[in-house]
Amino acid sequence: MFGASLAWWLARGGTHVTLVDRFEPGDPRTTSGGESRLIRCGHGPDPHYTASARRARTLWRELEAECGEELLVECGLTWLAHRDDGWEARTIATFERQGIPYERLAPDAGARLFPSWSPDGLTFLLHEPEAGVLRAQRAVRALARRAVAHGAELVHAAARPEGAAARLDDGRVLEADVVVWACGAWLGRLFAEHVEIRSTRQELFFFDGGPAWAAPGVPAFVDFDQAIYGTRDIDGLGVKAAPDFDGPPLDPDAELPAASAAGEAIARRFLAERFPALAHSPLSGSKCCRYELSPDAHFVAGPLPEQPSVWLLGGGSGHGFKHGPALAEQVAAALAGTAALPPHFALGARGAGSFLRTAGAAL
Ligand SMILES: Cc1cc2nc3c(=O)[nH]c(=O)nc-3n(C[C@H](O)[C@H](O)[C@H](O)COP(=O)(O)OP(=O)(O)OC[C@H]3O[C@@H](n4cnc5c(N)ncnc54)[C@H](O)[C@@H]3O)c2cc1C
């Protein structure tokens, strides 16, 4: 996502771009290779990610217009708030400042949003009507395709750094005014002295909820405090429920294992509590994927201290997908020297822990 977005953005603006990928863009072994990713503006008190997600929505629409595909399913997204003074309340304050559309609803209103509903334990709902779900793998492929249509060259090869250049496994050495390494979970391995990226195993579960859960108006949902999120049935995959706490380490090159019974039990417990009719729905699918986590969940974007023409880009930390094209626009402006990136994107040591997806705690 990060590399393909930047290639698209730069090539669209007339820059000569070579996009190198060891796999096909959107390969399931990459973090961007899943079927769906949430897009929402809610980022608690953080103004930058909020504005970036909003800008990304516009750019996703521009990409859709270019490629003629529906990549963003604007079904809305509902945050399930357990407290009056938590993440959701802080998100509302940021939305007010930035003019982002939202509705603050009583817990009972969930009954008209979802086919099955229990308001137990909730204080209010924060509904983002213009949020939704991105068709992830298709979006990455569309970006790469459109980058090529704008003149970029797509090269299938594994690369490693060689000074300021990139050496490919076919023997070629690519030199450029700027080389950007946007290698997802592999970034921490290629540049261990500059960036810390943890690769973790995450699990996704899909349940057969019947036709009611495939209706276009059913929103995606996030329970920040209980660290779980999901979507309605999109493209016949089933209702998605995904525990969001950081999973155990998983090497970037390791085979993706099967999802666990323990993970399914967590997803089912949540569904039984919030969407009771789904409590015993058949599992229609499950899978593992990887987060590539920076220590503080902030993105990584910046030049190497000793080689200013070599940039690292990554650290999506389980929330990077939606920002792809907007982050590309920001990085392109930083490369051109016309705008600065947030200082906390810079390379170097970081403290642990801000929460930009959910509270990250197990149920
Ligand atoms: C289960 C799951 C759910 C998520 N949910 C959301 C969500 O709802 N919303 C959201 O916004 N984000 C979400 N994310 C996060 C988001 O998907 C990632 O942050 C984002 O996709 C990261 O993209 P990337 O380009 O940095 O990494 P990747 O997609 O891994 O891309 C890295 C690329 O580099 C290539 N590469 C690596 N090494 C080399 C090399 N040596 N030579 C050549 N090519 C190389 C790879 O082939 C790959 O194409 C989720 C992530 C996961 C795993």
N/C terminus separation: 30 Å
Q: What sort of overall outline do the alpha carbons produce when their principal axes are compared?
A: globular
Bound molecules: flavin-adenine dinucleotide
The helix/strand order is HEEHEEHEHEEHEEEEEHEEEEHEEEH
Number of strands: 19
What does it look like?
This protein has 363 residues and is an alpha+beta fold. The chain is built from 8 helices and 19 strands. Helix 1 packs across helix 8. The longest helix has 21 residues, at 47-67. It is globular. The mean pLDDT is 96. Bound molecules: flavin-adenine dinucleotide (FAD). Flavin-adenine dinucleotide binds at residues 1-3, 20-23, 27, 30-32, 34, 37-38, 158-160, 182-186, 202, 204, 289-291, 314, 316, 318-322.
Can you tag this structure with a few keywords?
alpha+beta, binds flavin-adenine dinucleotide, 8 helices, three-stranded antiparallel β-sheet, 363 residues, eight-stranded mixed β-sheet
In brief, what are we looking at here?
Helices cover 26% and strands 25% of the residues.
Topology:
Elements: H1 2-12, E1 18-21, E2 36-39, H2 47-67, E3 72-73, E4 77-81, H3 87-98, E5 103-105, H4 110-113, E6 124-128, E7 132-135, H5 136-149, E8 153-156, E9 159-162, E10 165-168, E11 173-174, E12 179-181, H6 187-190, E13 198-207, E14 220-223, E15 228-231, E16 239-243, H7 261-274, E17 283-293, E18 300-304, E19 307-314, H8 324-336
Parallel strand pairs: 1-8, 4-14, 12-19
Antiparallel strand pairs: 2-7, 3-7, 4-6, 5-6, 9-10, 10-11, 13-16, 13-17, 14-15, 15-16, 18-19
This protein binds flavin-adenine dinucleotide.
